Amino acid sequence: MQSASSDECARVVVVTGASSGIGLATALAAARHGDHVVLFARGLAALQVAATACEGAGAASSRLLCVDVRDAAAVQDAVRTVLQWHGHIDAVVHSAGVVAYGRFEDVPPEVFDRVITTNVLGPANVVRAVLPGMRQRGTGAIVVLGSLLGRIAAPHMSAYAVSKWAVRSLVRHLQVENRDLPGVTISCLSPGGVDTPIYLQAANYLGHVGRPPPPVLSPEKVAAAALRLIDHPRRNVEVGATNRLVTLGFAVLPRLYDAIVTPLFDVAATDRRHPTPAGPGNVLQPTPEAYRLHGDQGSAVHSILAGVRSRLLGPPDS
Ligand SMILES: NC(=O)c1ccc[n+]([C@@H]2O[C@H](COP(=O)([O-])OP(=O)(O)OC[C@H]3O[C@@H](n4cnc5c(N)ncnc54)[C@H](OP(=O)(O)O)[C@@H]3O)[C@@H](O)[C@H]2O)c1
After folding, report:
1. Model confidence pTM above 0.90
2. What average pLDDT does the segment 223-229 reach?
3. Which one in 14, 127, 140, 188 has a CA-CA gap of 20 to 30 Å to 176?
4. Which helix (H) or strand (E) is 132 found in, with range?
């Protein structure tokens, strides 16, 4: 898919996980900026919708490639295709990621493994494929989505949190190794809770759905931070008013943190009003019917009140 208004001067921006949430918001923001956007995700249908929206938003061109970021060879092929189309890549925003909810021993091993491989090997494969071209040109920006959970521990999200700690480590090591490339920047962008569909399409072995804990960010705000990092690179950027406070509490008061994190998580980061059957969600394969820009889970206040009520009185059906 390519729009008529192709512009030789426009940047070439690759966005992974571009069919939903933060990736979709980033692709749309780049499109509004007039960039050439190339959208990666596994599922074709949602990518087509996203590419059409990017065209409408003003992209110099909008193309898509179905690629599973876990597959190193497929990622290499996809990046080769982008280079054939555009000759170079100016920036990559790696947003593809999946979540699993449940106690460690309740999450099936194949789901746990898939969260780790998607979230850790995914960015490794993408960086491995794009870095040589950027090294050759001496310029380029890579932004990898981390998470507040890459700095702290949270109950019932072990696979995801382990993967995001690894993402932060991967980016940190890449920053050390590529100090000889001042024009090539690698940034880790770590939001707190963002209103995207990820919570509803996550693998879930908890019994009720997860939700973004307040203060809830919009995907547009995180996308704006990602685009800012392309122009004004920084090594690590946190988005979320309480990220630093939570991280500080985790580091400085570990015993207090451990004592309060599970009740706080139950109340603020899950929604007891919405029971859900156990299943892998979009972890093993895409769930395109759920993909869109926002999560639209409604008021955090009502959800938190339901969480408090169920902790005090027990679940509604008990
Ligand atoms: N939402 C939050 O509160 C939050 C907070 C902190 C960090 N983050 C991070 O931000 C990133 C985006 O999250 P989101 O909330 O925007 O998620 P989302 O709405 O669920 O979107 C996930 C995107 O990733 C794609 N994807 C999943 N597995 C893939 C794979 N193996 N290969 C290629 N693409 C894949 C999905 O498309 P297909 O299924 O079609 O592949 C979809 O486009 C993630 O890395 C997440 O960890 C999110």
Report:
1. yes
2. 98
3. 14
4. helix 122-137
